TrEMBL record, chain A:
Keywords: Membrane, Transmembrane, Transmembrane helix. It comes from the Bacteria. This is Multisubunit Na+/H+ antiporter MnhC subunit. The chain crosses the membrane at residues 12-30, 42-60, 72-92, 104-124.
Automatic annotation (TrEMBL), chain B:
Keywords: DNA-binding. It comes from Dyadobacter arcticus. Residues 5-59 form the HTH cro/C1-type domain. Signal peptide: none annotated. Pfam families: HTH_3. The keyword Glycoprotein does not apply. SMART domains: HTH_XRE. It comes from the Bacteria. The keyword Transferase does not apply. This is Transcriptional regulator.
Amino acid sequence: MEQSKKIANQQSVIFALIYGATYLPATWLLKHHVFSKPVSAFIAIVPIITFSIFIFKYIKAISVMDEVKQRVQLEAVVIGFSLTAMLVMLLFLLGLCDISNPAWFGYGHLVCYCWGFYFIGWFVSRKKYGV
Amino acid sequence: MKNTIKIERAKKNWTQADLAKHIGISRQGLNSIETGKFVPSTLLALRMAKVFDTTVEVLFQLDDIDFI
């Protein structure tokens, strides 16, 4: 049981790294090279597939965690989601009055902020429960 | 919510790691419960009571502030 928990945990981390390893090169390729539309679409879809697999593994890892760790993960996701939603709303409202800075707050940056907010939530929740 | 996990653990001469292993959670998780930072589920509380051969009421008691 303990071994399967460890394996599920490791798999979610491994697939998060695989996702990162596909997302960053895909971003770089699409930004710096010109491909035909089908090839561009394929390159854009690859990180989405790896992200889907990561989410599947992450949910599986959460389901085998003990209840304290489940709570920590749940709170981290809630905090991460809430802060991301707040940022998106703020950017939308600022965009309505023509105050926006795409160099810092583009779609690509939002992904990084979302991850950052998740880790803030994780840190806060770990502190709260002393895990 | 107060708990007497530490006392019951001392009676059995168990470390947090020993008890955590018996009830199937992590040591950090047990520490969180023991220090009152996390209130366990009914299932976990019953499991704990069973390994200590006692009742849930002995292990967990409501604080004054838990009464509305």
